[in-house]
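Hey, I'm writing a tutorial for new members on how sequence and structure tokens pair up, and I'd like a real worked example in the thread rather than a made-up one. If someone can provide the structure for the chain below, I'll link this post from the tutorial.
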Amino acid sequence: QVQLVESGGGLVQAGGSLRLSCAASGRTFSAYAMGWFRQTPGKEREFVAAIRWSSGNTYYADSVKGRFIISRDSAKNTEYLQMNSLEPEDTAVYYCAAAYGSRWLSTWSYERGYDYWGQGTQVTVSS
């Protein structure tokens, strides 16, 4: 079992920045990849960004490309999401996720590509 704990959410004005963290613990951590999704009330969870753990290759949703940066610290088993130029439309609960297995290569932007999820952290961007 793997436990994922997000932190770093909060309230920020439009144009501001936040950095989310996701610390992984539990079984020997050797995730194939990790990602971030977000969800607003009444909507499905949507993909934000992902990173392949071994290579550091990154993937982004078009809506955040150029504004958000995903990274990881392998020594700390932690991934990060640096969010810049935040917009009110970025308001959501943000979830981190971990994937085990190569199926992620074809499902990296879908929930089904991930095996473990954090509890979520609220990000609110005021206009």
